[in-house]
Amino acid sequence: MMGTADHPMRKIRPLIDTARIRQLCEPLYxxxxxxxxxxxxxxxxxxxxxxxxxxxxxxxxxxxxxNLVLRWFVGLDLDQMPWDHATFSHKAESxxxxxxxxxxxxxxxxxxxxxxx
Length: 117
Prior knowledge:
Elements: H1 8-12, H2 18-25, H3 39-52, H4 57-66, H5 68-74, H6 86-107
Helix pairs in contact: 2-3, 3-5
């Protein structure tokens, strides 16, 4: 990893269960068709962008292009191009409330999803 041993992202990354994110998103993906972007990488990109104070999807793609710590956090190899900024909007629309509720149920105490519908 790039960055110092005490970098906050080094401490946060091991706390995120990427296998669980993939499991929660599995029903939202088709079994056939072209390979999709791993949902855990999109989640990590959004979380990493939030932690870095990135304020737009275009700025997030710029960060993913040049910020080695963020690339490590997300799991992008050095030779992988980051996704188009529209990918984030598209996934937010397609995942929608289903994923929002699943995440809320998983990571918050109690099921507050019904009150947000």
